[in-house]
Write a structure and sequence with these properties.
This protein has helices at about 5-10, 170-175, and strands spanning about 40-45, 80, 85-90, 95, 105, 110, 120, 125-130, 135, 155, 180, 190, 190-195, 210, 215. It is mostly beta strands. The chain has one domain. A hairpin with a 6-residue loop joins strand 6 (about 110) and strand 7. The N and C termini lie far apart (about 35 Å). About 50% of the residues are buried. Bound molecules: calcium ion (2 copies). One calcium ion binds near residues 99 and 181.
């Protein structure tokens, strides 16, 4: 967590962080008013050092659709996992299945750094499981120099604003976020999705990966 991002998330507005309009306060939506294509349950949570932001709004803060700021700015309705923190989300009786291309999307709150092409990212490793015991990790090189090398990680894909009340199924080309294809780890379906923060340091209470939402593209 950079001091600047901490300032952004604390002050709820920071013209130097996102687009010209700065950050907008995303609201935590009620999952009931949206298509049932988002994670419905927090199965497990192990917060790391420096976590705290968003805890008071659990579990809703990470369920339902993402709540980004203006496109290109980071959302604020998130849960900070802390350094090395982990969360496991589920879809109730449903599971993500391997269909054509992207099967699910993880939404963090990366934002474009004003005046630059680069993105401020906090990366996480994503894993999937069908039984909650055996996990398959998407390969993620958090030490890569930029987005070109971050494929397989979560935490760098800008989240777009879209009408979550009508979008079903989820169209990852419109939503943005970080896209995952079960075929990349060779599993046909998954009931659980885990995100593990890969940061080494960060300032409380927003250290580490800031989870907004997880949405399924192919669900059964
Ligand atoms: Ca697929
Ligand atoms: Ca964070």
């Amino acid at each position: 967590m950079s001091a600047r991002k901490l300032a952004c998330m604390s002050l709820l507005a920071c013209a130097s962080c996102g687009g010209a309009d700065g950050l907008e306060l995303g609201r935590t939506p009620s999952a009931a008013s949206y298509p049932p294509i988002y994670a419905t349950q927090v199965v497990d949570l192990k917060l790391g050092p420096g976590a705290g932001y968003g805890q008071d709004d659990l579990p809703d803060v990470v369920l339902g659709p993402p709540a980004p700021g203006a496109t290109g700015a980071g959302g604020l309705a998130v849960l900070s996992l802390g350094v090395g923190g982990e969360i496991i989300l589920g879809f109730g009786d449903r599971r993500v299945v391997d269909g054509p291309g992207t099967d699910f999307v993880v939404f963090e709150n990366p934002f474009r750094i004003a005046g630059q092409a680069s993105v401020f990212a906090e990366l996480g490793e994503v894993s999937v499981s069908s039984d909650g015991e055996t996990w398959f990790d998407f390969p993620c090189d958090a030490d890569a120099a930029g987005p070109e090398g971050w494929g397989g990680c979560a935490g760098y894909g800008i989240v777009n604003t879209y009408d979550a009340e009508v979008m079903e199924p989820l169209d990852p080309a419109i939503t943005g976020g970080d896209h995952f294809d079960l075929a990349d780890v060779g599993v046909p379906d998954a009931r659980f999705i885990r995100v593990r923060d890969l940061s080494r340091e960060g300032e409380a209470p927003t250290a580490g990966f800031d989870l907004d939402a997880v949405g399924g593209v192919h669900l059964e």
